[in-house]
Amino acid sequence: IYTNYGPLVQNLEMILANHFKTDPKKVIITSNGTTSLKTILTSIKNKLKRPYLSDLRKEKKFYCILPSFTFTASAMSIIDTGLYPIFLDIDKNSAQLTPEIVEKFFRKNLNLKKNVIAVMPVSPFGSRINKREWDKFYFRNNIKIVYDEAWCFDSFSMNKVGDSAISLHATKSFGCGEGGVILTDDFQKSLEYRKIINFGLNHNKQSVIIG
Question: CA 154, CA 23: separation in Å to the nearest integer?
Fold first, then answer.
């Protein structure tokens, strides 16, 4: 069985969990890194209050902030989820988006902040993201963190806040042709991610959430 979480996929998740020093239930295999990002973002958007069909024209715009220096898949995952990307410049030393850059943007755009539901820090070429600083950002601003760590198979460190997407594309250090991983430290979220990946279906084959 090669699909729908058969024994080969379960075995890969167990091996990856051992590599990342975490529980196999918190490692979710996806079809690619972009799908990993979209799944995390979909989970965040699913928790928003949705308008009735008659009020769709009044639906608010919700945003995800990301660095302008990244691969296009980062932005595409935001757009495909029905969110709007906001590109900010990067720190000249780390080549990364930083909490300071985002909070400076917020000070100049207070009205927009309430509709920003996620920030996507991106690791350029596998360099470590300062997750301690992003943890502090989360507790100051209560905005979800979605880590695009496509290149970070060898440099990943487990998150206390936010979830990560890693790519298993052939160009990466651990490539399987095509594939991706979500890494979370929250067992309940891992269950939700598996539903989202499988069209929102629960154990009774009912589509209970948008997937």
Answer: 18
Ordered DSSP codes for the chain: --SSS-HHHHHHHHHHHHHHTS-GGGEEEESSHHHHHHHHHHHHHHTSPPPPGGGGGGPPP-EEEEESSS-HHHHHHHHHTT-EEEEE---TTTSS--HHHHHHHHHH-HHHHTTEEEE--B-GGGPPP-HHHHHHHHHHH--EEEEE-TTTTTT----SSSEEEEE--TTSSS--SS-EEEE-S-HHHHHHHHHHHTTTB-TTS-B-S--
50-84: per-residue pLDDT in tens? 655 555 566 689 999 999 999 999 999 999 999 99
Q: Which two tokens stand for residue 163?
A: 């979830």
What's the predicted TM-score (pTM) here?
Answer: 0.93
- Strands 180-183, 63-67: pairing is unpaired
Torsion angles phi and psi, residue 194, rounded to 5: -65, -35
* The predicted structure's pLDDT at residue 21: 93
Amino acid at 74: S
pLDDT in tens, 98-115: 999 999 999 999 999 999
- Closest alpha carbon to 25 in 38, 37, 10, 35: 10
Residue type, 4: N
